[in-house]
User: Fold ABC transporter domain-containing protein from Catenulispora yoronensis.
Amino acid sequence: MTDIAALALTKRFRHTTAVDELSFTAPAGKVTGFLGPNGSGKTTTLRTALGLVAATSGRVLIGGRDYASLTRPRRVVGAVLEATGFHPGRSARAHLGVLARAGGVPRARVAEVLEVVELSSDADRRVREYSLGMRQRLGLASALLGDPEVLVLDEPVNGLDPAGVAWLRKLLRAQAAEGRTVLVSSHLLSEVAQTADHVVIVAGGRLRFEGPIDALPGAGSLEDNFLALTAGESR
Ligand SMILES: Nc1ncnc2c1ncn2[C@@H]1O[C@H](COP(=O)(O)OP(=O)(O)OP(=O)(O)O)[C@@H](O)[C@H]1O
Assistant:
């Protein structure tokens, strides 16, 4: 079972405690929505899980192991942190080809993931010509390249049009149905309500709720619960 477990994770920057003794589990086979107001530590937590930020204390384990100790990380975890970082003069196909080579992934997988994210017909255009939504799709294609057991996505809905949002929802549900672990941060609560099985709500770097979406404490919508659980914490 390749779940993601944050264990008393704390990350302090010079003047800020971004994440404060945070513990939660994103279970395998489920879509976990990771929610919190601006500046509540979501991105920092995800970056720590991926070994991009060093924890001050505590840890995040993926299938019981630190990211840094995974021998073929691209085969275990696929991540989309932000839809940037692509070489603008390179095509999507070339970009994925470079990643495939670096990650020890068979080249044939490039065409497969381009198909999955519905970018095949634009695959040879330069990324500088891509819209934000197309960049998000390319980010997802990079994440899916190694056919990972775990997907970590930071705000993947940004820039997608309504058809793209519906498409992403189906894709994430299908990934979870195949037993994968999907951890996705988002501010779009109505979308999360339709996609997630499990939610983790943070504010000020601390856990406010973790559990199945139908076990939220309040009777109202996810948004009502979110606002009640995070009151006064928006930055
Ligand atoms: N590299 C850094 N140096 C200093 N402070 C940082 C750094 N990265 C994040 N922070 C601070 O840590 C806190 C949490 O930021 P983080 O980006 O993790 O929040 P978030 O929940 O992802 O926010 P948003 O919803 O706005 O994306 C913020 O106060 C932020 O300013």
User: Anything to note?
Assistant: The first strand starts at residue 4 and ends at 12. The CA atoms of residues 164 and 185 lie 17 Å apart. The helical segments are 42-49, 73-76, 92-103, 108-116, 132-144, 162-177, 189-195, 222-229. The chain has a mean pLDDT of 93.
